[in-house]
Fold each of these.
Amino acid sequence: MLVGTLGKSIGCSYISKSFILASRRCEPDFGRVREMETHSSKLPLKHSELPSVSRNISVLSSFDVDCFPKNEELPLPLKSQGTFRNPWNSWRDKRLWDILRWLTTTKDESNVPKSSYELDQLLPVHRVNRALLEKPLKEGKFRLTWLGHSSVLAQFDGFNILTDPVFSERCSPFQFMGPKRIRPVPCNLEDLPPLDVILISHNHYDHLDKNTLKELLRSEKHRHAILVVPLGLKSLLNRLHLDTRTCQQIYELNWWEHVDLDGKLRVFMTPAQHWSRRTICDTNRALWGSFAVIGSSVKFYFAGDTGYCSVFRTIGRYLGPFDCAAIPIGAYHPRWFMSPQHVDPEQAVKIHNDIGSNFSIGIHWGTFILTNEYFLEPPQLLRNVLASNKLHLGSFQTLRHGESTHGPYSEVQIH
Ligand SMILES: [Zn+2]
């Protein structure tokens, strides 16, 4: 195990040059990893916690000097009294008054039809093609399958990666109340190919669903999957009473830290402008983030849940350009209230450009009604924004629930 230097703690807003490496059995295949002096900073993952599954896994905290120049400053979350905070001026905390104003003065324009027949016409669900998902992909090819809201199965370079899996009926602490899905899940968890990586962007109920995670982690089929989560989420996941094996598969990272899998896949946790809360007394006690997943021939970006800020250009500069991305386009109205935490389609296209995405799919819409815009407005607005920016409509698409698309972009096909 090698332990490098952490330039500044997460209590600071910026990190300069440093990394920590804990490796097991093999070195990653991503070029040179420089050895640094030992430092007493606490690793997000202790060597003893490495999973017993037969995979080669390296955890690299902070960043690898091959990716990030030493003299560059990268934003880190602010931290005080055990809570995290966004480091950008574009963030604004919500006051109770804002929430009351939103709830009492903004008209709900979602207008979701009551009739399931009408919904089937407007927002059809495509049963996931299980055989298609099992088909191996050639080098340089990817397959993205939208499973509703922010759940995406990304496949490339021999890996199956699942983002923010939510398969429950409601995204809520309770299954008898709270936002209920307007479209059914397009498959069962057992219909998915054996997973390698599960990414969780933050702890909000529409992104972290304990019932889905329990089922996934207890499944024999997905027993080799690792979970990559932001700082502060592991204790919550441990409280889900998962067994010892599955708890050892959870990797908790700060922004810019990464995990290497089998020496062939590097998963970076990257920043997002958002917040966290699971109960009334744990606001911002866990971090939030996005992910850059770098394979041997394909790069994928998962934006998680985010408002727009300057960090996407930084992500694009150091980890991009990306072959494909999943970027939120919904839950944005009213803007005066939602803009710090949720992008609208115009800002989603900015992220697409900032990170250098060659092909993106729009997520975080059409599944749970969380805000006030018309439920079909996000894809319509997305097309308008692409047209007005003279971008090809095919470069940033929305899929039907359960639909798969293949790339690279020049050959994108929908199934
Ligand atoms: Zn959220």
Note: Residues 1-53 have pLDDT under 50 and may be disordered.
Amino acid sequence: MAVDLLDFDLEGLAAFCEGLGEKRFRAVQLFRWIHQKGASDFDAMSDLAKSLRTRLAGDAAIGALPVISEQASADGTVKWLFDVGGGNAVEAVFIPEDDRGTLCVSSQAGCAVGCRFCSTGHQGFSRNLRTGEIVAQLWHAEHRLRARRATAGADAGPGGAPLRMVDNVVMMGMGEPLQNYGALVPALRTMLDDHGYGLSRRRVTVSTSGVVPMIERLREDCPVALAVSLHAPDDALRDMLVPLNRKYPIAELMAACRAYLPVAPRDFVMFEYCMLDGVNDADAQARALVDLVRRERVPCKFNLIPFNPFPGSGLERSPPERVRAFQRILLDAGFVATVRRTRGDDIDAACGQLAGEVRDRTGAQARLARRRTIPLHPQNVARSLR
Ligand code: SF4
């Protein structure tokens, strides 16, 4: 079976080339062809010896993922659905903004964490993606966007704005990236490598629901920007919204964040907070959030995310005035608190809608259906406020 070269960071590719009797500089050339030039045909790699190209064509491949669909929103957002085999599909979403182009990348087909407000979590877990399948999402998006710019012109974005490329990656698509750590780290290294995509550490973000031991390992192995899906100011409520909290409660999570920051490329943690009507959006909960991060001494910013309802969730989006009131309490306490702008609504590309057709092999749907019978509101919420 052909070796997928997208599975390798530069060190891995150097070891592979060494196995073929080639020097390290050949790996650098090959890496640049693949990631910087988007080549998928070894014959096009004109500065590699013909004998090496022939060998690579026989033993290796550049594992582009089959594209099931590409949808472009009127606001410039683009969503790709990739086939990862076995009836599984994952999504990547490109979100152009004034000052940057962000690609949201998936790390797993499905997700085992089962967050209450997340459509991916409701599908259950199918499997981890390989490094190559994570990198292939960026490889495809980057070179597809470049090709579009070459044909459409640099200023062909919405309203004549500059067409942006990927200069920001968030591991915030399907899956919990820190539960696929072995594949994640080489993928991050490829994103950061100057011979690869050359992204700065500040512009690569790992978003986690709170896998505490892996936050600690990431700090050692490949510190990039950190976002944490918090969604509740206390353990009682977070246990229900983010089941992983029962294993790694908030105090442990905050300690891991504190320890991460001295080596992080940004001097704050971004706390994501999905706004759920009548569940976690009360003034008292905003004040509890302020108390929590002050007590735990975690420099942070907040990103308030309007919930994207999906069938069977049993949850509603907080009204805009409630979101604004919640945000005001955080702002008045001196924190940066943004409200995520909904993007790609016309193509269902917003956060929490990264669905795809992922098989439920774990019975998660049934478990979640049972959990949905536990009312979150009002008595459980009242308990969380005590
Ligand atoms: S929010 Fe993230 S960690 Fe939670 S179920 Fe969804 S994909 Fe998994």
Note: Confidence is low (pLDDT under 50) at residues 351-362, 367-386.
